[in-house]
Every structure is written in structure tokens, then in C-alpha cells.
Design goal:
The protein is α/β, with parallel strands linked by helices. The chain has six helices and 13 strands. Helices cover 24% and strands 27% of the residues. The strands form three sheets. It has a nine-stranded mixed beta sheet, with helices on both faces. Strands 9-12 form a two-stranded antiparallel ribbon.
Length: 265
């Protein structure tokens, strides 16, 4: 008998979001699952952690679903930290985050709470996968669920290099369906600011909604941004183990050290 893997499931849309329930439903057929997710939506919080107020853990029940589910009144990274150090009886073999509403392709991984939960796991030497769908207003989770077990099985049997996680995005739903899934590279696109100024009705002072708009670039044909537009799902291995720009060290070390160590005139 093959032993079922133990997987931690989390997200940034909150513990009651439809996406995380769909993720649990598909994974619970092939693995033992514990859900530890934010008590409220934590989209775009990136890798932030809570240090200015206490964190509380609560065990809850999902209606009509028998699952082990915990909430934390903090960020996705908080959830992973408390899961690994307080909640779970043993370390999981994998951390899976999602299914996020809205894609996390391109450089949006730097803002994503969905992705951040997986990054937190990687920093604890636990591999992870982030799942997102491009449809924000009307995501069809049923159309993507059958891809998830294969991705899970692949990563468990073909581990990524240390310090690396898998970022998986599904395209917007079309009548022809998803063309397949491609193992590919990260694109450049991201959501940039689009501030909208408004005025306080009583004080007359200005305030802002940060807003957003897409910052678009010339993309490689094999990037996740282009492939998603063509109807493919994308799986991008992203490495966060060493963020050093080693070429700069090789080319600039001597010049930098000579310049900054020289006594001021």
C-alpha cells in the first residue's frame, strides 16, 4: 500500500474562499490534508508577517465538508509559520497554496500572498506549489481541478532544486478549454499603481485609492504571460534560495570596495 503524502493547504483569499475548498476536495482524494488559512482575505500582502499585534489560532468547520481546518488572524506567511511550529503534528511533505482568484503570473509573484505562503515553506526546506486562475470575477475552478493531482504527483516524485517552488497559473476559461500545461519561464508583466485621488467629505483633505493597471512589456514567446493568453496553463519553477546577482560581484567587487573604502577627502 502506497503511503499517502501529508500536505499543508493554505491561501490568501481567506479560509472560506471557494478556491481553497476546491483545492481541498481534489487533494483529499490523494493525500492527508490539513488546512491552515487566513481568517480574512489577505491578497497582495506578499511575504509580510504580523509583529504588532497577537496572532490567534482557531479550529473551525466548513459546512458539509469534513476537513481539518484552522484559521489564523494574520497573513499567509503567518499561517505557514504557525502551522509548522504550533498546529501540525509533523512537517508536511508539501505546501500547496490556492486556488487563487486572479493570476499570479509574471512579476506579480512579488506581491502575491498566495505565492508568499509557498515561499515561507521553501525557507523551511519544504517544497511547494502555488495555484491560481486568471478569471478574477467568475473563476471556474472545476475546469482546472483535474490538472492538480498530476502536478502534485510530479513534484513529489521529481523534486525541484533546493530553494525552488512551482508557480502554476491557469488561463481564462474559453469554449475550447485549456490547451494543456507548459513548463516554462516567468514573464515581466505586473500590476502597477494607478492612484485615484478623492476628497474627504467632511474635512476636505485628499485621500487615495492606490488602484492598479497592467505594466506590460515585450515578452518572450515561451513566457507564462504569453502562453496564458494563448490558452495554456503554465508551471514556472521559481528560485528564491539565493537572490545575489553574482555577475555584479565578479565584475564590480574590486571597484566598489576601492571606492567606498577610500578615506574621504
Amino acid at each position: 500500500m502506497i503511503k499517502r503524502p501529508f500536505i499543508l493547504v493554505t491561501n490568501d483569499d481567506g479560509v472560506y474562499a471557494p478556491g481553497i475548498k476546491h483545492l481541498w476536495q481534489v487533494l483529499s482524494k490523494v493525500a492527508d490534508i490539513c488546512v491552515v488559512a487566513p481568517a480574512s482575505e489577505q491578497s497582495a500582502v506578499s511575504l509580510s508577517i504580523t509583529v504588532r499585534h497577537p496572532l490567534r489560532i482557531e479550529k473551525i468547520e466548513w459546512p458539509f465538508i469534513e476537513a481539518e481546518v484552522w484559521t489564523v488572524n494574520g497573513t499567509p506567511a503567518d499561517c505557514v509559520k504557525l502551522a509548522l511550529n504550533v498546529i501540525l503534528p509533523r512537517a508536511p511533505q508539501l505546501i500547496v497554496s490556492g486556488i487563487n482568484r486572479g493570476n499570479n503570473a509574471g512579476r506579480n509573484v512579488l506581491y502575491s500572498g498566495t505565492v508568499a505562503a509557498v515561499i515561507e515553506g521553501v525557507m523551511h526546506n519544504i517544497p511547494g506549489i502555488a495555484f491560481s486562475v486568471s478569471d478574477y470575477f467568475n473563476p471556474d475552478y472545476e475546469k482546472v481541478k483535474h490538472y492538480i493531482p498530476s502536478v502534485i504527483h510530479y513534484l513529489l516524485s521529481h523534486p525541484l532544486p533546493e530553494g525552488t517552488f512551482l508557480n502554476v497559473n491557469f488561463p481564462k476559461h474559453t469554449e475550447t478549454g485549456i490547451k494543456g500545461i507548459r513548463f516554462t519561464k516567468q514573464g515581466k508583466e505586473y500590476w502597477t499603481e494607478n492612484p485615484e485621488q478623492r476628497e474627504h467629505p467632511a474635512e476636505g483633505s485628499p485621500y487615495y485609492w492606490l488602484g492598479s493597471k497592467l505594466a506590460q512589456f515585450d515578452e518572450d514567446d515561451d513566457s507564462d504571460i504569453v502562453l496564458l493568453k494563448e490558452g495554456y496553463a503554465t508551471a514556472v519553477p521559481i528560485h528564491i534560495g539565493d537572490l545575489t546577482h553574482h555577475t555584479s560581484i565578479k565584475e564590480c567587487r574590486k571597484t566598489f570596495e576601492n571606492f567606498v573604502n577610500k578615506p574621504l577627502a
